[in-house]
Specification:
By secondary structure, the chain is α/β, with parallel strands linked by helices. It has helices at about 15-30, 75-85, 95-105, 190-200, 200-205, 210-215, 220-225, 225-235; strands at about 5-10, 35-40, 55-60, 90-95, 105-110, 115-125, 140-145, 150-155, 160-165, 170-175, 180. About 30% of the residues lie in helices and about 25% in strands.
Length: about 240
């Protein structure tokens, strides 16, 4: 049975919104018709948007910082709090994860010195071994990154599930419920990374040399890209894959 997912996007233009949705559909195996899309840049998201949906997903953003003001921020903050309190599955991707942490009592900061751009290696924590989503992930895996902000600390009651030296909060669960944030981009394979890198080159790389270095070192990230499919099956549809 299909279960609709409310997907809040914070992208300034149609090209990046479409690329983000196409990437999520490809990686998750969820049909595009199952997503209810909301363009937060265009209008605030109302609480009744949660009616009749099985889960909430908060996407990434290249133009704004999660801990500062952006269009209709307060409406998304209230929506997120209500979704979490209701026990609904929630997933934040990159900016979405930063926003969730900041909105629910943690803190996100700008940290250009520890930015991660391109293919990076993520380490899974011991606490992930019995997590419903991360329980069978390898101790380390490659993932696509694209951020110059990071979460400094998480809300009370959170569990860190994955980390890197530059960004300790790579993946986390909020409380004991089905609420997750991931700093890396599970929706992006190598092709997707190169598209985003080219599109956001003015924001994420400082020179042609850095651009080329990131592009040349880009790799496929099959384990990270499996996360959205696992989230859909294990957390949204509650299917036990083990």
């Amino acid at each position: 049975m299909k279960k609709n997912i409310l997907f809040v996007q914070i992208r300034e233009d149609e090209a990046t919104r479409k690329h983000e949705l196409d990437s999520v559909v490809r990686a998750s195996g969820i049909d595009a018709s199952e997503f209810i899309l909301h363009d937060l840049i265009k209008e605030p998201v109302e609480l009744d948007a949660l009616e009749g949906v099985a889960a909430l997903m908060i996407g990434g953003c290249g133009e704004y910082e999660a801990h500062k003001d952006f269009p209709n921020r307060e409406s998304l903050k209230e929506l997120t709090k209500v979704a979490v309190r209701s026990g609904m599955p929630v997933l934040g991707l990159c900016f979405g994860a930063q926003f969730m942490a900041d909105a629910l009592g943690g803190k996100c900061i700008a940290d250009k010195e520890n930015e991660e751009i391109g293919t990076c290696v993520v380490q899974v924590t011991d606490e992930a071994s019995d997590d419903p989503l991360f329980r069978d992930y390898p101790k380390s895996f490659k993932a696509t990154e694209g951020h110059h902000d990071r979460i400094e600390y998480l809300p009370d009651g959170c569990t860190v599930l994955a980390t890197t030296a530059k960004c300790p909060m790579q993946a986390f669960r909020i409380g004991k419920g089905p609420v997750y944030g991931v700093q890396f981009h599970p929706e992006l394979n190598k092709e997707g990374l190169l598209w985003r890198l080219d599109y956001y080159s003015d924001l994420y790389v400082d020179s042609k040399e850095q651009f080329q270095a990131v592009a040349d070192s880009a790799e496929e990230t099959p384990v990270a890209c499996r996360l959205l499919k696992d989230w859909a099956k294990r957390i949204v549809h509650k299917e036990d894959l083990i």
